[in-house]
Known about the structure:
This is Pimeloyl-ACP methyl ester carboxylesterase. Helices cover 42% and strands 18% of the residues. The protein has 324 residues and is an alpha/beta fold. It has a domain at 17-163 and 252-323: Alpha/Beta hydrolase fold, catalytic domain (Rossmann fold, 3-Layer(aba) Sandwich), CATH 3.40.50. The strands form 2 sheets. An 8-stranded mixed β-sheet has the order 1-2-4-3-5-6-10-11, sandwiched between helices. It has a 3-stranded antiparallel β-sheet with strand order 7-9-8.
Amino acid sequence: MGHNERVSDPIDEFSFLPEQAEEAGLGVAVPRGERLSLALGDGRTLSALRYTPADAAEAPPVVTFLHGAGLNAHTWDTTILALGLPALAIDLPGHGDSSWREDFAYVARVLAPDVAAGMDAWTEAPQVLVGQSLGGLTAAAVAASRPDLVRALVVVDITPGLDPDGGASQIREFFAGPVDWASRDELVDRALSFGMGGGTRRKAARGVYFNSRVRPDGRVEWKHHFAHLANAMSADPVAAAAAQRQQDAVSAVLGESGWQDLASVAAPTTLVRGSRGYLTDADAAEFARRVPAASLIEVESGHNVQEDVPIELGTRLRALADAE
């Protein structure tokens, strides 16, 4: 894609899958993708993607995925291609096509009931539940509160007590910029200027398409709530400082509740750690101490394991799903 070429809208949101399979060197039949929507009791909507292999047209999901803060369900696309199993990827509240929360409560135990409602509606058997970052903490909360929904838990590059939306000040700065733009190409330029987007303009364009929308006035805005919150905080330093103090005050409580969730999970649990991700050796050791029955896997990756090494992750998850 040339620098000045516009980011065109695809035929549909799944029309990138053949291109992604080819880029990954996967000689697989592309699964059928479907957008799902569930009305929640308080008027909000939960959205998700369902992927069905070409040779199993009616098969229900066996693996369910939860993304991290600032991402959306499509972050799992290539991992799901490598997985080769029926899968469900949920847009967490405040992300993708799911409704924003008016209370801004994007924490695991608050998000878990919405995820459980989606799994009740869209799955037929206990799942291998995979969550990265904020999604990993949410997955643990789901597994603890609704053990009937989970046969195995996989937590990707997060442990309780870490900030799931970023030790990365760069990411906060990236989303703290303007919240609306003249075109998606401006967003692609911004992502590339921050060293984001997967290394090529084409990959950055895909990511921008999935994470943005065109408003009725023709302006383009980020879909997820965090960008809008980050922008508001950057415009009001006093409010930002107060919010940071509040975050510091509750982080220990949230961390402890996360450890409680993990301790009460009955399903087999695996932690996948990126070698260049957010977890330190001390974090991994604390996880092993607190959850001694869990397995620990380290991969050569940054924090977004599903985007850095999707083939390896999908292959490992396939083996886990087949073994359970």
